[in-house]
Structures are given as structure tokens and as C-alpha cells.
Amino acid sequence: MHHPQITLQKTVCLFGIIVFHALLPFTTQTPSSFWKLYADTQAAGGDYIATALSFALVPSFIFASGFLLEKTMQSGPAFSALLEKRIHRLLAPWFLVMLFWLVPLYTLFDIPAYNRPAGTSFGGTLLAGLQGRFTDHLWFLLVLFWASLFWMICRPLLERTPDPAFPAAFTKPGLAPWLEKAREKAESLKPAWANPEWFRLHWESPVVPARDLAGIGLAVVAAIVLRVAGKNLTWYCFNESAGPILFVYCGMLAYRHRDWLDTFLWKNFAKIFPLTAAAFLILLPAGHGHFLLSWLLGVLGALLTYQLSLLFVRIGFPAKKASGVYAFFEKNTFRFYLFHAPTVLLVFMGLDTLNVFSPWLCILLTVVLTLCITAGVVLCSHKLEQTQLPKIAAGMRPGN
User: Where exactly are the transmembrane stretches of this chain (predicted)?
Assistant: First the structure.
């Protein structure tokens, strides 16, 4: 079964990530943990926008991956087959792109980056890459692998959770009296112009299985333990997998309850979306203050992008693809992610030497040129895959 809202969510978030990376050199704080490239002039509002994008986009990607992971696991593949698929999908691209794309380009153009100081030799860059210390934008593949592996191991254990449903307080009959009391209280306190019906949500809540609640508890505990005790496990981004463990499980829950979730969010979009957006924007300035708050912002960000994707799907956006450009971008989302960096940095470095563009115009040009160049690289990668890989595979067959 196709899930267009997830496809749209991933596609839009990829475009947002390219914008985010083009914006980083024009901010004052966020580049410190990514690339050591700075423009002479910051973009007005750049710090705030970059912070919002950082809390919304990557968690949304991981949420969507968890959604699809649950779908795959429900089809019943063996653990070995699922592990092989994860390695092929995540670790193989990380290794190949790092070896044949990142290391040569970073060395050739001497791009300063996290764990790759300016002047590092090809051998030093390669060693840092093989050790999983220099990962650049491919850190996402590594943390997603660790988070997926965690749930591939733990999900069968959760399936054994005794499953009478969770107490009736979490079903609609149990919650209804509390919701009605809250609505009546709001009505008694409301200004004369307020509409009490705004507080009435239209929903039909499913019974919450005990395994789901146990999974939520496990996700939170595992993420906290890894965040606190594993902070020094920096190789292959293992220490950065704490939040993704939580975001992946949110996606898994969304798949399990997708019919109810989509109906609930759609019926109450005019209420849920503004409330979610308000909570996200209010908490955003303090997002870097504590990791628990940053995780909450990540969950809210993923929910926001999911609601927007659901909105566009419901109003018929997938049926209105006016050209093949969007279809090409959607089909090659993963490859665009792999190859958009360091392309975006090289474009910025070229434009920055001209020193004739305003910050936001330079960002816009960087995004457009990065998309065009990366599209060419994606086409070349398809061509190589079609022409060279069959030859390599044929040469590895017995008897050759």
C-alpha cells in the first residue's frame, strides 16, 4: 500500500535540508557543529530559521523511516533478511559515498568540516571517514541504522507484552467525562466572544495496546540512557542515536494507528495544527537548553510536517504534478540527499568569492544551483549503476 503523505513528507523535508545547509554559512551559531565555513555577512533571521529547520526536518525524516520500518516488519521478514536490507540501504551508501565522493572532494577543495580540519591530507580524511569520525551529512544514515537495529531487536520482545488493552481511561469512554469537564470549565471561563465548540475534538479513539505503551516507555528510557551514558561513544555516530530511537518509534506508532491518526488529524486540523505550531514556536528558543526539550521539539516538528503533508495529499496535490521535475525529485529523494553535499558548500564557496550578492540572494542561488548540479550527479549515478554494476556482478560469478 502506498502512503503518499509519507512520500511527500520525505520529499519536502529533503528540499528543506538543502535550504538549511545553504543557510548555515550565513548564521552565527549552527555552523560550529557542521562545516567551518562562514559568510562575511549574516542573513537577517537566519539563526532562528536555521534552528527551526534543524528541529523539524531531521526528526521528520527519521519519523518517516520509522513509519516505513514498521510497515516492513509487519510483512514478517526474518531478522537476517531485514538486517541485510538495512545494511544495503544505509551502510552501503554511507561507505561508498564517503569513499568515492566525500573524501576526494573534501580533500581536493580542502573544505574545513567537523573532524576534518583544513589542510588534512587525503589519507587523514580517509582514515577519519573509515573510523566513522568524519561523516559529514551522512551521519543521518548511521544514526538511522543504529535506531532501526534497536527496534528490530526490541520489537519482537514488545510483541510478547500481555495484551489486555490498557486501562479504560485511555479509551474514548474513559476519556469522554474528562474532556467534557474540561470543555465545561473552558466555557465557564471563556470571554463572551469565544466559541466553546472549539474545544470539542472530533475523535474516535482506539484502545491503546499495552505493547505500545511499553514501547513508549522503552523508547524514552533507552534514549535517556544512551544520551547520558553513551556520550563518549562518538565513532560511527553511535552517541547521536538517542533521539532517533524515540523518533523512529513515533513513526512506528503512526503506522500502527495510521487510519485513526489520519482521521483525527484531518477532522481537527484547524485546531491541532495551530496548537502544535504554537507549542513548537514557543519552545524553540530554549530548544538547545536540554536534550529532553530538543526531543519534544523533534516530535512536534515531525507532527507538523506530517500534518502539512496530510493536508496537501487530501486536497489532491499528488494528482497535480504539473511536470516531471517534481516526480524526478520525489523518485530520487535518497540520492539527492547523498550527493547534495558537499555540492552546496562548493556552490557557496564559488558565490562567496564574487562578493556581489546579498545574503538571502546568495542563499537562493546556492539552493537553485545545488539542485541543478545534484540532479546531474544523480543522473550520472543511475548511468553508472546501469552500465558498470552489472559488469562487476558478472565478473564475480563463479566460473568467471
Answer: 12-28, 48-69, 90-109, 137-154, 269-286, 292-313, 334-351, 357-381
**Closest listed residue to residue 204, CA positions, set 175, 181, 184:** 175
Cα distance between residue 180 and residue 262, in whole Å: 23
pTM of the predicted model as reported, rounded to 2 decimal places: 0.86
Helix (H, G, I), strand (E, B) or coil at 113: strand
Spatial CA neighbour of 21 closest among 330, 348, 374, 372: 348
DSSP 35: B
pLDDT digits over 291-310, tens only? 899 999 999 999 999 999 99
Alpha carbon distances (Å) from 85 to 90, 139, 205, 389: 8, 18, 35, 18
Pull the grid cell for residue 164.
Answer: 489486555
Report the candidate in 311, 375, 390, 345 with the shortest Cα–Cα distance to residue 5.
311
- For residue 2, give every residue at least 6 positions away whose Cβ sits within 8 Å of its Cβ, in sequence order, or none: none
Q: What is the pLDDT of residues 9-22, one digit of tens each?
A: 999 999 999 999 99
CB count in 10 Å sphere of residue 183: 16
DSSP summary character for residue 30: G
Beta bridge partners of 367: none
